[in-house]
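Example: N-acetyltransferase domain-containing protein.
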Amino acid sequence: MPEADQPETNSPAASGPEVTRNDEQGRYEIREGEDLLGFAEFKPIGGGAVLLPHTEVFEGREGEGLGSRLARFALDDIRAQGKQVVPMCPFIARYIADHREYVELIHPQQRGVFGL
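Written out as C-alpha cells, the predicted fold is:
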C-alpha cells in the first residue's frame, strides 16, 4: 500500500479507468489513459476529518459508474488514513446512504444532518 503522502492508485488493467489521489489539486481523479473523466474534490479540515464538497463526471461519461468508483475510492482512502468524512457533496452523501458500510466514517453527531 502506498504511504500516506504518496498518491493512491488502483490497477487500471483489471478494472478499466484508473482512480488516483492528487494531493496537489486536492481531488481524487478518474482517468482513462491521459484523459480526465471526472474528479471528487477533498479538503482536510482538521480534527481528523476530510470535507468532500464536490464530485463531477464529465459530460458524455455519466451513467458508467465512474462517480461511484470515485466515491468508493475516496471513502476507502479516507478510512485507510483513519479519518472521518464530511460529505457535503450530495452524490457522496447519497452513496454513503446506499452503502451503509461507510456510515461509520461520519461523526455520529453529524449523521442526522446527512439523513444517516
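The domain at 12-114 is CATH 3.40.630.30 (Aminopeptidase).
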